[in-house]
Give the backbone structure.
Amino acid sequence: MDKMWAGRFTEPLDSKADDFNSSIHFDCRMAEQDIKGSVAHASMLANKGIIGKDDAEKIIAELGNIIEDIKSGKLPIDYSAEDIHMFVEAELTKRIGDVGKKLHTARSRNDQVALDIRLYLKDESAKIIEQIKTLLDAILTQATLHKSTIMPGYTHLQRAQPITFAHHLLAYGMMFTRDIDRINDAVKRMNYSPLGSCALAGTTYDTDRYLVAEKLGFDGITLNSIDGVSDRDFCVELLSAFATIMMHLSRFSEEVILWSSWEFKFVELDDSYTTGSSIMPQKKNPDIAELVRGKTGRVYGDLMGILTVLKGLPLAYNKDMQEDKESIFDAIDTVKQCLDVFPQMIKTMKAIPENMLKAAQKGFINATDLADYLTKKGIPFRSAYKTVGQIVGYCVKNNKVLEDITIEEYKGFDNNFEKDLYDAIDLHNCVESRISAGGTGLASVENQIEYVKKYL
């Protein structure tokens, strides 16, 4: 395919250099956005009298045919084209002749690609948000089932205090709501049209950038033409949001992996989301969760890649910026792939409440409640803390738990102990007595469930 810019040159581009320079292998995925932007641009050109209305109508109609042919497979992508913009323009000109050549009036590929990627990222961000909402729904399903299922809460991966399984799951629910907010915030700042910035300095034509922005669903235009074509901070911001999503998925995956191990056995993953071993018939491996955890590093790499590409670029456009797409496309594909399987893995996961309760009972995680019991009797907390520490040491030495010690043994440590202490250290009461907002008590957990429901 002849290069649109070939007029200045007397020799063709070396074939290897041409392949190295080409971006159509990956930017072809923006064909729909490229044509959408071109339709709006052609309409504006006609509206301003820069091209004739009849010409604009021909251009717009044929652009519609081209995108339908691409979608149906009738029109295969020609990978000898330099990029998707050149491919569409060449196909348009082939179909309607010189009228097609008028489309590129008052624009450059610099502002064209800046527009395309914004439109593409808006579309993909909306899809990812819907996937996160599906995950939140899966979390709500499990949380609703396990509002009163007691498990140990951990700090330093040591059993710390009793919580409910619902409370633990809803912590991830809150994280994923913020992930949606982060994407929306990034899209809000991205939602300004660069089209009309041209190569970097604007154009001599009396264009209407605001009309194009309105037609394409933007909130306005980029106010500086150099900024419009030469920055990709919106890619960085979205990649950061995607990396944060993956970080949350990875932490969740890590816990699913631990919980499903024989050492914990808090949950049983559905067979549909596990694999076996080639030589160990007893194995049931949490490969899906492990892959999500592993793919997190890949998205982190995409973020660092684009940051590194941009860090030394002078204004305005440089060919280095072609490298923005593979990073963000890869991150989008990876996040979508993970979010495609993760929600159903969580929804079909079966909790094993009896194992959670046993672990909670053996971990002395009601020790704080025992200290609070003494504090409410007038003992200073630090003194109560020391006494309970001695009691725990006594239990460890004698292979007992706090519930096993007789009242006489308790009184040997402090005379303020009475038989009502057993109610204070009952795990169900320990959980229910945590009445502070955001805590693990039933009323609080139900409020958290309601919050996520309303958020959705």
About this structure: DSSP finds 19 helices and six strands in the chain. The first helix runs from residue 15 to 21.
